[in-house]
């Protein structure tokens, strides 16, 4: 009804606009909204395997003590040089590192910074992208032009090189500084995705109906546009967590990420590289946990993409 009224150029009545707004995608479930996509996603078996692995890893990162105590004393800092490089044994399933510390406990505790950084960076970049993408895509004008040039500048810096330069210049390398550095270079792509989605959504009939009914820009952005424009950003963000975790491990492995006395998989890999020939288990277990974590987040991102991308729906 609303579409034909706009096409003919006739002035729609208030009742017509109210009816169109009440059935608009922004006011109820529709095939393109994340709520419907998530309902479809949780019915698929391919979602539950990576989701279960991630849930376990998150529990490990939140409560590493009980998990580390399952096989041994659970203290990653209880070290004895007499056990340096020791092979796996009863109570020490992963053996010992070069300082004689229990490798299993260190690997378990190493999950906390990696997963924390991956989630915090992704959520921070996502929130910034939502705000900037909504404003840029909806209002356009000078704000959109300036934001476009700023993102172009960020695209000009290689991610790893820029992160290495910033972390080296800062000097203090802890979870907070690593999160800030990675977030600084993670928001531009997310912002452009959100901006494009908002520009498409703001021209929909339900947005024009809301404007005709006198809805404020704030209400239009939050109630009508955001729920229908956020799906591509959710997909990109779910795929980005694994990359952020791998990026943090890479920076730490290169010596510019987290520093001792922090415990992380990247630090363990950095130490193990010199002892791979004599003690391969030092490299095997941290790299295995890192690979499984990244793979689980990537597979979860694929499941989210399949559920929310209309071109992939079956």
Overview of the structural elements:
This protein has a domain of 202 residues: MetI-like fold (Orthogonal Bundle). By secondary structure, it is mostly helical. The chain has 15 helices and no strands.
Tell me, what is the CATH class of the domain at 111-312?
Answer: Mainly Alpha
Rounded radius of gyration (Å): 24 Å
**Beginning-to-end CA distance, first to last residue:** 29 Å
CATH superfamily of the domain at 111-312: MetI-like
Portion of residues in helices?
55-70%
Strand content: under 5%
Form type: elongated
Largest sheet: none
CATH architecture of the domain at 111-312: Orthogonal Bundle
Q: How many H/I helical runs?
A: 15
Low-confidence parts lasting 5 or more residues at pLDDT below 50? 1-32
- Strand tally, please? 0
Q: Do you know the CATH topology of the domain at 111-312?
A: MetI-like fold
What is the averaged pLDDT score? 82
- Derived from helix and strand composition plus strand pairing, the structural class reads mainly alpha
Succession of helices and strands: HHHHHHHHHHHHHHH
Keywords:
314 residues; elongated; MetI-like fold; disordered N terminus; 69% helix
Secondary-structure blueprint of this entry?
Blueprint lengths: L1 H7 L5 H9 L11 H8 L3 H18 L1 H5 L34 H37 L1 H15 L3 H12 L4 H10 L2 H15 L3 H8 L4 H13 L1 H23 L11 H8 L8 H28 L6
What is this structure, in a nutshell?
This protein has 314 residues and is mainly α. It contains 15 helices and no strands.
């Amino acid at each position: 009804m609303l579409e034909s009224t706009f096409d003919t150029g006739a002035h729609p009545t208030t009742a017509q606009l109210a009816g169109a707004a009440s059935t608009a995608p922004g006011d109820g479930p529709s095939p393109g909204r994340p709520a419907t996509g998530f309902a479809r996603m949780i019915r698929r078996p391919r979602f539950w395997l990576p989701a279960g692995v991630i849930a376990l890893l998150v529990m490990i990162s939140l409560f590493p003590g009980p998990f580390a105590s399952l096989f041994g004393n659970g203290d990653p800092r209880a070290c004895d040089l007499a056990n340096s490089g020791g092979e796996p044994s009863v109570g020490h399933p992963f053996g010992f590192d070069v300082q004689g510390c229990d490798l299993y406990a260190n690997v378990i505790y190493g999950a906390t910074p990696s997963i924390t950084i991956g989630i915090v960076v992704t959520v921070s970049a996502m929130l910034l992208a939502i705000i900037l993408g909504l404003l840029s895509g909806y209002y356009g004008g000078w704000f959109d032009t300036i934001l476009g040039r700023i993102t172009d500048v960020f695209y000009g810096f290689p991610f790893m090189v820029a992160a290495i330069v910033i972390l080296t210049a800062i000097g203090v390398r802890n979870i907070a500084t690593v999160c800030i550095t990675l977030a600084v270079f993670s928001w531009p792509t997310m912002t452009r995705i959100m901006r494009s989605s908002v520009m498409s959504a703001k021209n929909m009939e339900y947005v024009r109906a809301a404007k005709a009914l006198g809805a404020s820009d704030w209400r239009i952005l939050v109630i009508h546009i955001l729920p229908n424009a956020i799906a591509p950003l959710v997909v990109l963000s779910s795929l980005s967590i694994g990359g952020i975790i791998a990026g943090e491990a890479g920076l730490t492995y290169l010596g510019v990420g987290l520093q001792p006395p922090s415990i992380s998989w990247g630090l363990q890999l950095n130490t193990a590289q010199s002892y791979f020939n004599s003690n391969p288990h030092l490299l095997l277990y941290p790299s295995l946990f890192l690979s499984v974590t990244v793979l689980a987040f990537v597979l979860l991102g694929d499941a989210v993409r399949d559920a929310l991308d209309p071109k992939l729906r079956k």
